[in-house]
Task: inverse folding
């Protein structure tokens, strides 16, 4: 995997300059909405749409007022709890299952693993209605259980990813441990787990982000409840409506922008700490094809 | 793959059958305790699969042939009535058309844009990490936040995008009102978060052996020739993978359409924004027509399977898999 490609040699100066100009131009395009968001969050209501990246009137008071307008702290707390449960459970369950597929041989293993891979392609819309009915018959609609409950049973992509990782561990160390009398669960818990922390983190941060972002499940299971039970996506969606002039609001978009910014920040912090795990995880998605 | 030293005999597994004789042979091949442990380890997935995937799909098939009533939890069989209604409801055809149109517009643009960015990044060397981070940030942004910003950026009268267009003398469209511009608006939002695809393609580009380019250069192939004769074939696996995944995602588009057009149930949304996923959601969770929604879901499932199948067939003709050479 030599990244210092021979391109460095034939690339002309013009080519390099053009490439850098393009990269900087696209970076500006990608960053512009963030800058706009930050600026708008600091403006008074009437100036949100002036599209100036430096507010004419600084109104940091928005950040104070928004707490009185919206229960953002509840939303973030709910989302945080759900995300931790969802990510924690799916990480653990997926790696247990992945270890089963990676280490043991049993009749039907490859067919079953094929099924795991097949469910990765299954469109979520197909199971949306029946899953709702299952949770409904358990009396759990309106609680946050459906937003993490299914994560107790592993998830196809994560099982695939962890299995790849386990297969990369030398089998000899497990055989040696077996000789020393370590049981099957011990092999997983005391050997495979500690050795696969990186893939653990990948799964955890992926699912954490997916959970934080999950609008549809929140709409289905929590929308009828009180606003205090909303998750971040549901809360912001309701905020967009609340201040919308078509809905009788006054167009206080500065509050929407503050809220949007506040719920984005945890994801940016997560990315700052776990960037390489995100990148590695996404790149792995491509390799399963 | 080399590490896959788990008993080679397991590669041909036949849980379901065979004569008694072969079964006896198999029993010899598998260590019984190990097999039991294996089943125990995969039990969580097995339960989840049987209940929330297979069970749910069968349940949804049953419901699609009934008039399920949520209040009483009863379902009377109604035969094909839901499927009949599906055909007769013009909104199903409308939403399906909208969705297919969106997919045809979005997927190629996503692939081309992602490939373009990946090629730019692949050749930077120093600084690539910085730009990769910048390009990835939109993907970390929750869709609700993206939508609330784009709702304002795309505002036809005062939005920044039209102001920018006006500055260079172009009269921007009413992005979110004009039916013709509804789908491009969502595509624009999607393109902003295209970096996931970009990362996968970048990883594929890094795996192209550099000596191929060296040989080609010596043979006098120019950069364009090298791109089409080496780069594209070598990353065709990743490209087709992305096409399939992005298509499945595009056919289920929901979040963006819901947030931009349907979150507020007061304002009438343009018909052009009624996507299949949105209509299915409305039927199930606003109208509580679960039978109808289940039938819609099955229709979507069949359509997605067919499209994926066609894509796989096509890809088998064009994709170069390095593994086949080994």
Result:
């Amino acid at each position: 995997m030599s990244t210092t490609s021979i391109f460095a040699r034939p690339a002309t100066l013009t080519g390099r300059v053009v490439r850098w100009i393009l990269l900087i131009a696209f970076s500006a395009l990608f960053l512009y909405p963030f800058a706009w968001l930050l600026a708008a969050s600091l403006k008074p209501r009437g100036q949100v749409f002036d599209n100036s990246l430096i507010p004419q009137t600084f109104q940091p008071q928005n950040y104070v007022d928004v707490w009185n307008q919206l229960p953002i702290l509840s939303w973030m707390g709910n989302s945080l709890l759900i995300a931790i449960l969802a990510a924690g459970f799916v990480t653990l369950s997926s790696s247990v299952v992945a270890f089963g597929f990676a280490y043991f041989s049993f009749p039907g293993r490859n067919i079953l693993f094929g099924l795991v891979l097949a469910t990765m392609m299954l469109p979520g819309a197909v199971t949306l209605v029946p899953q709702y009915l299952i949770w409904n018959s358990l009396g759990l609609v309106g609680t946050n259980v459906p937003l993490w409950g299914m994560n107790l049973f592993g998830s196809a992509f994560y099982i695939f990813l962890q299995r790849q990782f386990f297969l990369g561990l030398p089998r000899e160390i497990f055989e040696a441990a077996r000789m020393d009398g370590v049981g099957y669960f011990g092999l997983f818990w005391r050997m495979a787990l500690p050795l696969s922390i990186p893939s653990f983190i990948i799964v955890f941060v992926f699912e954490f982000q997916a959970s934080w972002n999950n609008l549809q499940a929140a709409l289905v299971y929590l929308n009828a409840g009180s606003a205090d039970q909303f998750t971040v996506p549901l809360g912001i969606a309701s905020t967009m409506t609340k201040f919308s002039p078509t809905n009788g609001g006054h167009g206080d978009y500065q509050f929407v922008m503050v809220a949007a910014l506040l719920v984005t920040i945890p994801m940016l912090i997560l990315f700052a700490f776990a960037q390489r795990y995100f990148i590695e995880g996404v790149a792995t998605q491509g390799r399963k094809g | 793959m080399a590490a896959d030293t788990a008993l080679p005999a397991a590669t041909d597994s036949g849980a379901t059958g065979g004569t008694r004789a072969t079964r006896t042979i198999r029993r010899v091949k598998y260590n019984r305790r190990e097999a039991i442990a294996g089943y125990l380890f995969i039990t969580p997935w097995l339960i989840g699969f049987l209940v929330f995937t297979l069970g749910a799909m069968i349940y949804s098939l049953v419901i699609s042939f009934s008039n399920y009533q949520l209040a009483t939890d009863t379902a009377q069989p109604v035969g094909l009535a839901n499927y009949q209604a599906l055909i007769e409801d013009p909104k199903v055809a409308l939403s399906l058309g909208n969705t297919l149109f969106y997919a045809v517009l979005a997927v190629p643009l996503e692939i081309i844009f992602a490939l373009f960015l990946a090629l730019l990044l692949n050749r930077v060397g120093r600084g690539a990490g910085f730009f990769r981070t910048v390009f990835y940030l939109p993907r970390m942004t929750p869709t609700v936040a993206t939508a609330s910003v784009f709702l304002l950026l795309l505002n036809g009268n005062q939005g920044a995008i039209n102001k920018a267009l006006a500055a260079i003398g172009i009269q921007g469209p009413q992005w979110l009102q004009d039916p013709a511009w509804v789908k491009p608006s969502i595509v624009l939002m999607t393109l902003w978060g295209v970096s996931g695809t970009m990362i996968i393609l970048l990883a594929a580009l890094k795996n192209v052996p550099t000596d191929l380019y060296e040989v080609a250069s010596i043979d006098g192939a120019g950069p364009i020739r090298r791109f089409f004769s080496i780069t594209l074939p070598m990353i065709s696996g990743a490209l087709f993978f992305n096409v399939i995944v992005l298509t499945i995602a595009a056919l289920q588009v929901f979040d963006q359409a819901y947030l931009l057009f349907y979150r507020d149930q007061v304002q009438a949304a343009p018909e052009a924004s009624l996507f299949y996923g949105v209509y299915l959601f409305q039927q199930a969770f606003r109208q509580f027509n679960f039978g109808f929604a289940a039938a819609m879901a099955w229709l979507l499932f069949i359509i997605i399977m067919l499209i994926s199948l066609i894509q796989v067939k096509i890809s088998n003709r064009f994709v170069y898999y390095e593994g086949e050479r080994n």
Notes: Chain B touches chain A through 126 residues (CB under 8 Å).
